[in-house]
Amino acid sequence: MIAERTGLIIWLSDPKSYKSLEKYGTLHYFSKKMNYAVLYVNKEHADDVVANLTRLPFVKSVELSYRHEIKTEYSKNTPDKTRAFSI
């Protein structure tokens, strides 16, 4: 059975220390320009991981990702206009 995952956005003050985040979950993305990292963890352990991450000296703040709230199933309600312009 696949565990349900959730994303965490971690704002960093020291961009060099982002590699130490890998022990808390799966490091998906790191931005050098904006100094944040995206970390995926199991949903049941997310609260514990957030508590541990906020204690780190190089972490400014931790936010939960809103990706699970975005609708990802789309329906095509508009008619296909390309058929009207065919020869």
Structural notes for this entry:
The chain has one domain: Alpha-Beta Plaits (2-Layer Sandwich), CATH 3.30.70. It has one helix and four strands, in the order βββαβ. It has one helix at 46-54, and strands at 5-12, 26-31, 36-42, 59-64. The chain has a four-stranded antiparallel β-sheet, with helices on one face.
Q: Name the shape in a single word.
A: elongated
Rg, Cα atoms, Å: 19 Å
Low-pLDDT ranges: none
Distance between the termini: 52 Å
Q: What is the CATH fold-level name?
A: Alpha-Beta Plaits
The overall average pLDDT, rounded, is 88
- What is the number of E strands? 4
Strand content: 25-35%
Short summary of the structure?
With 87 residues, this protein is mainly beta.
List keywords for this structure.
elongated; single chain; mainly beta; 10% helix; Alpha-Beta Plaits; 87 residues
Give the arrangement of secondary structure elements.
Elements: E1 5-12, E2 26-31, E3 36-42, H1 46-54, E4 59-64
Antiparallel strand pairs: 1-3, 1-4, 2-3
